[in-house]
Amino acid sequence: MSISAKIAAIFLVFFITTSFHTPVITKKGKPAYAIKTVVIDAGHGGHDHGCSGAKSKEKTVALSISLKLGALIEKTFPDVTVIYTRKTDVFVELHERANIANKHKADLFICIHCNANPSSSPYGTETYVMGLHKTESNLGVAKRENDVILLEDEYSQHYDGFDPKDPASHIMFSLFQHAYMDQSILFASNCEKEFKTYAKRHTRGVKQAGFLVLWKTSMPSVLIETGFLTNTKDENFLASADGQVTMAESIFRAFKEYKNDMEDTGGKIDSKEIALLESEMDKEDTSQNTAHNKTVEGVTYHVQFYASENELKITDKKFISLKNENIEYVKENGWYKYRIGPYNTLDEATKKQSTARKAGYKDAFVIAIKDGKRI
Length: 375
What we know:
Elements: H1 3-19, E1 37-42, H2 58-76, E2 81-84, H3 94-103, E3 108-115, E4 125-130, H4 136-146, H5 155-158, H6 167-174, H7 181-197, E5 203-209, H8 212-215, E6 221-228, H9 232-239, H10 241-264, H11 271-281, E7 299-308, E8 327-332, E9 335-343, H12 346-358, E10 365-370, E11 373-374
Parallel strand pairs: 1-2, 1-3, 3-6, 4-5
Antiparallel strand pairs: 4-6, 7-9, 7-10, 8-9, 10-11
Helix pairs in contact: 2-10, 7-10, 7-11, 9-10
């Protein structure tokens, strides 16, 4: 073979290996990380109609999109098992939906819903991950979806005493942080991108809120609000066969990209990419009232930033970076827990959480206290 031919061959190999994604492979020749099982959860069902428009019900639209999405995944990826929380018009309790996903050790949980608003003006898609609802709008969506537990028998036993009628419960719940937040944000971002570019829908973005259905899932999980049934244009689109197919195809495209990305990287997440996506999530409409700038009777907030088995004085040099904050500590279960506060609103506390993290306490988190006890 001539030198020029060898160079050409080397260039060809280089081009092939650098131009296409190749999954991270183990010594046994299998992908280091694989999406094997997906659970698709059609919201509501049975005697729980969800929200309604002039001519459609949320439970019906959500089920249709869910079944179409599942069929696309099954056809394109026969190696992926698709589990449905419901395939017919039946009522499934929220905690059971998460149980189904956990029992099957799912790699992704996709919950599909439709949105509603007292006004007919709001329109567009929203994709939620489990977390702190930052605006009244986000909190309102979570409250509406969570209220379904009132249709369940003995609901307080399944949700650790959560009471959808008690503001303190929503505070406690919103502080919960999902272990798979980064993966959830990545998939949610893919969904909103496809809704905008493929389905040509108005996207309201990736958001956070405290959804009971996402609470106990032990895998990346999102809740998709496909549009507002209370908006005429959104409802007409979602109630149509073409609209339902388009939404299913959009979510499928998001899933395909997520699957490829996760398997190409061995399940690793690009922290810079996630930080960028999170910064986009934080760009809330400043005209909206934040959900947590109000006081709740009997509730105060603190930021816990350090814990030690040994007692340290609050003047210890270890805490010098927070010398301008009110530091206090309590002993719980043999540990001395250090915190700053108290604050009257959750909004104040989350700002101080940012202060603590910038001061070097990267794992600082917000806690709520009611009647002297942590909630």
